[in-house]
Amino acid sequence: MNIQMECVNVELEVECEWLLDSETQVEYLHGGKVLKSGSCYNDFYGFLTCMDEEHGEEAVKEFSVSPDSSLEVRMITTVSVIPVQRTNESLPFGMQSFQEMETGLWHKVKADHQPLLLERVELLEVCSWSSKGMSDNIVSARNDLMKFSSPDYACKKIAETLSEHGVEVKITPLTENKPAA
Q: Could you read off the pLDDT of 108-146 as tens digits, one per residue?
């Protein structure tokens, strides 16, 4: 921070939790190049519901695209983690409320890594559907995405990815009404 025209390093510690998130972007391609980005879908109805094949099928109908058309419609699905803090807001059915961390805070990282902003971190981005059909690569990609539904797998991938950036992660088992790290 800058105090009276001098840079001063201030060390502070902020607890956060990492919330798993997915979104799917519809893209229109011709000759392998993206012509246009279409609708973007999120997790409103639950984790990975954004990659529902109906989203791609709607886009295909809109432009009368067939599997042998020169225009291709693809769905690109991204799984990320977002740094959040729990709020004290009372929600029905025992649900928890979270608030996304403000950007501008930096992670303290291991000595051999560059500082990292405390913000969304991408874990995986793949093509999850294509108007050309469900190739082996797409089926494999969808299976890789579904692995994130397992808490053990998701925690392992989150820890690995953050560790690659030099962030030390402590996994704490989730207990009722207590935050996980």
A: 556 666 666 677 889 999 999 999 999 999 999 999 999
Pair type for strands 6-7 and 98-100: unpaired
Max CA separation in the chain (angstroms): 65
Q: Are strands 33-41 and 17-30 parallel, antiparallel or unpaired?
A: antiparallel
- DSSP result, 27-86: EEEETTEEEEEEEEE-STTSTTGGG-HHHHHHHHHHHT--TTSSEEEEEEEEEEEEEEEE
The end-to-end CA distance of the chain, in Å, is 27
Q: What is the pTM of this model?
A: 0.79
Tokens of 69: 């058309």
Residue 46 near residue 86 (C-beta atoms within 8 A): no
Report, as an integer, the average pLDDT of 159-179.
Answer: 70
> By percentage, how much of the chain surpasses pLDDT 70?
80
Candidates 161, 181, 155; CA nearest to 14 is: 181
Other beta carbons within 10 angstroms of residue 145's beta carbon come to 23
CA–CA distances in Å: residue 175 to residues 69, 88, 112, 172? 52, 17, 34, 9
